[in-house]
Amino acid sequence: MSEAVQKPPTTNQKLIQWVEEKAALCQPDDIIWCDGSDEEFGRICQLMVQNGTAVKLNEVLRPNSFLCRSEPDDVARVEHRTFICSEKMEDAGPTNNWRDPTEMKRELNDLFKGCMRGRTMYVVPFSMGPLGSPIAHIGIELTDSPYVVANMKLMTRMGNRVLETLGDDDFVPCLHSVGHPLEPGESDVPWPDNVANKYITHFPETREIISFGSGYGGNALLGKKCFALRIASVMARDEGWLAEHMLILGLTNPQGEKKYIAAAFPSQCGKTNLAMMTPTLPGWKVETVGDDIAWMKWGADGRLYAINPEAGFFGVAPGTSMENNPNAMLSITRNTVFTNVAETPDGDVWWEGMTPKKPSRLISWLNSEWTPKSSTRAAHPNSRFTAPAEQCPCIDADWETPQGVPIDAILFGGRRPGTIPLACRALSWEHGVFLGSTVASETTAAASGEVGQVRRDSFAMLPFCGYHMADYFAHWLRQSKDANHKLPAIYSVNWFRKDEDGKFLWPGYGDNSRVLKWIFENLDGADNAIATPIGHLPKADTIDTGGLNLAPDAMQQLLTVDNEAWKREARSIRSYYQMFGTRLPQELSDQLDALQERLTIADLHEDRAI
Ligand code: GTP
Ligand code: SPV
Ligand code: MN
């Protein structure tokens, strides 16, 4: 270790000891306690440029912004290398990979021995949620990746002020290494990782996170999926609150009345876009509280209050344009880290879908020459931008309010080319939980593996629930048992219905405001819904389509219940539910029985009509 060892800027003994212990294990050359300042961010980014991890973008076009290129094998979350290490295997449940905690720690201990040789260990104190918020929690990430430090600065409240708030209290320890030690004289690579040994591990009983081998996104920025979802979902279960993969938005009607909506869609299914959309309906306004994660607690008044535990956006770049998401484009004009996008000759960024016309020449995410004739993509499909939330032009005035914002409605959705209608209101809280549990979606590039396969992704939490998914359903069902709780209404939505030619039936993006308007009015008691076997669907002409150029029967297709398709859906849900065995809450199998019964009755009615 270097001569001048920095004195820990804290008196927290558990923290000091933990850092010492992990430093002894990982053997870094240096330890730096991150202060979270802009100067530090500058130094870290400069270091990334020196190391070849990043290029500085054109200061005029994109001030204080950087482009990082990862190794081609480290571009997304690795679900098959993600483990919930609960003491009992059955507590991880059938949807998670499980490892025995003692064995896992033994194996990790071997991997971490000397893993930071030749590198610096950064101590990154971070708060998930506004500092001092009763809903917020503090974690400390130890990492040997400057890329992680830079991103944590943008994504969380980070540094000295967090240590001040922490005092001598407890924190969630998050240990991360790219798993690529440097022997004396060995030169570094631009994106160090460890392809052969990737482990994203969570210890729910002791509330610890240990991640090895990957430097990318959710694998490495441990405040995000690992803490704010997998560990926090366990904390929420134990303490009676909700930690969810949800955006939070404020919706204001032309009369100035405002409601807050939370929405769970799986990865790459439109959370960021919905959270900051520009409504095409005149007079309507959407403001952003969060674009990925919501922590929600019941207030003294019985309402459900949500905070965004994050302070930045780690958003999908491809498909983002001034045309369909201007607020995202305006959020990333400066102080932004881009990962795996393409670079223009004048030192700016580009990705597929950013402009209608492709630039004639680019350096691709793979660092090679690219022209529109190239057969490969210029930007990786899971390329991302990291930017501070406060830079978003439509950030909500209350986005940092410590007590959170009151939620009126919860939406569930996914990429479903068929069956699921554009919008549907649940019949009850229990039916809403049923809808959440049955969310399915085509897989995307946010995780490694095949893309475009429809899989169940309950509550958009399949990869993010830190315990048995059936117990998680039960936790949601329990929320209605407290008579003081003023339950939000629950809806399902689907922007991704396709016609026979595989074209989207619904224009999406800013036009989703038309569905939000219908929900807003429905919440206010408008007579705009009709009971069907699957829930309350919008009555004909209650979704404002004025000015839209839709195919003649598009609304019809988007809003009719195809009984045969729904019977298949119900059978598929039954087979999905089987894996939960007797742990599946009775209310959900009752909901499924009731759905099948309603579908059968509807069939009989149809027969009679013929
Ligand atoms: P994660 O950050 O992975 O959690 O993704 P996300 O859920 O925030 O999704 P995001 O808003 O980044 O959108 C993902 C992709 O879906 C982008 O390529 C968008 O352009 C596209 N998309 C978003 N909203 C819509 C929509 O309403 N309709 C259609 N057709 N595509 C959409
Ligand atoms: C997601 O996959 O849902 C993301 C990206 O938000 S990551 O942070 O990599 O998990
Ligand atoms: Mn996400």
Word description of this protein:
The protein has 610 residues and is an alpha/beta fold. The protein is 28% helix and 22% strand. It has 16 helices and 31 strands. Strands 1, 4, 5, 6, 7, 8, 9, 10 and 11 form a nine-stranded mixed beta sheet that branches. Strands 12, 13, 14, 15, 16, 17, 25, 26 and 29 form a nine-stranded mixed beta sheet that branches. Helix 2 runs antiparallel to helix 5 and helix 15 (563-577) runs antiparallel to helix 16 (586-609). The chain is globular, with a radius of gyration of 24 Å. The chain starts with 12 loop residues before the first helix and ends with a helix. Bound molecules: guanosine-5'-triphosphate (GTP), sulfopyruvate (SPV) and manganese (II) ion. The site of sulfopyruvate (SPV) has 9 residues, from helix 7 and helix 8.
Q: What's the arrangement of secondary structure elements?
A:
Elements: H1 13-26, E1 30-33, H2 38-51, E2 54-56, E3 66-68, E4 82-84, H3 89-92, E5 97-98, H4 101-112, E6 120-128, E7 137-143, H5 146-155, E8 157-158, H6 160-166, E9 172-177, E10 199-203, E11 208-212, H7 217-220, H8 223-239, E12 242-244, E13 246-252, E14 258-264, H9 271-275, E15 285-290, E16 294-298, E17 304-307, E18 312-316, H10 326-331, E19 337-339, E20 342-343, E21 349-350, E22 362-363, E23 369-370, E24 384-388, E25 405-413, E26 423-425, H11 429-437, E27 440-442, E28 454-456, H12 469-478, E29 489-493, H13 513-523, E30 529-532, E31 535-538, H14 554-559, H15 563-577, H16 586-609
Parallel strand pairs: 1-6, 3-19, 4-5, 4-10, 7-9, 9-11, 14-25, 25-29
Antiparallel strand pairs: 2-3, 6-7, 6-8, 10-11, 12-16, 13-14, 13-15, 16-17, 17-25, 18-24, 19-24, 20-21, 22-23, 26-29, 27-28, 30-31
